[in-house]
């Protein structure tokens, strides 16, 4: 019996989480109404016990009238205030936690996912997926010629191109200085090359004016497809090698990992070392 009462009291006192301040007030009013009713019943029972014991110093009728007029409103007001204060504190803590979680998973410069968030999303993926790795062409020369502020502006504008093509909520991240990654899953993964080409074309068509100087910006990309269960490193390795081939072939182009077996790569290309080093660096 005690355990049942204890569990009931805990359920009544537990506020839970709230989606808005209005939800806090609504919950507080509901809980306060129950407390007011409970307090009123206790007051009546207390008076009846005092009457039975002959200890009530005044007539029962007027005493119940006073109890009816004072106990419910006073207990309701006190409970509403108390629950609202605690509930709003819980709401503020929840919002702060959400903001902190969002900041910990967001690249502050581009506004896209960061590496950690991207890898977490990949771990949750199932079935057929496509991974596209992008790199801004000749980015170092932009930084050297126009300064790092100009380079940051280019990253922001390119990131916006990803959002324009893929839409809000897409799995796209900035995973390095000028490197981005896109994860496509399900039916959409079958059109990975089309998506990559749409992004490449959008960046190429976008006019960049940095520090009063108009410059051309382009991106190259490598595409790799497979089953998510095979692991990130394997897919990234294929996409990274394809990206290297796109760069070596003149930049501003898309290469699929399937083309690697058809291409005769330059002997200077480290077929395993570059991709494995990049994958291990990204997964770290």
TrEMBL record:
<protein>
    <recommendedName>
        <fullName>diguanylate cyclase</fullName>
        <ecNumber>2.7.7.65</ecNumber>
    </recommendedName>
</protein>
<feature type="transmembrane region" description="Helical">
    <location>
        <begin position="76"/>
        <end position="95"/>
    </location>
</feature>
<keyword id="KW-0472">Membrane</keyword>
<dbReference type="Pfam" id="PF00990">
    <property type="entry name" value="GGDEF"/>
</dbReference>
<dbReference type="InterPro" id="IPR000160">
    <property type="entry name" value="GGDEF_dom"/>
</dbReference>
<feature type="domain" description="GGDEF">
    <location>
        <begin position="127"/>
        <end position="259"/>
    </location>
</feature>
<keyword id="KW-0812">Transmembrane</keyword>
<dbReference type="InterPro" id="IPR043128">
    <property type="entry name" value="Rev_trsase/Diguanyl_cyclase"/>
</dbReference>
<keyword id="KW-1133">Transmembrane helix</keyword>
<dbReference type="InterPro" id="IPR029787">
    <property type="entry name" value="Nucleotide_cyclase"/>
</dbReference>
<feature type="transmembrane region" description="Helical">
    <location>
        <begin position="37"/>
        <end position="56"/>
    </location>
</feature>
<dbReference type="InterPro" id="IPR050469">
    <property type="entry name" value="Diguanylate_Cyclase"/>
</dbReference>
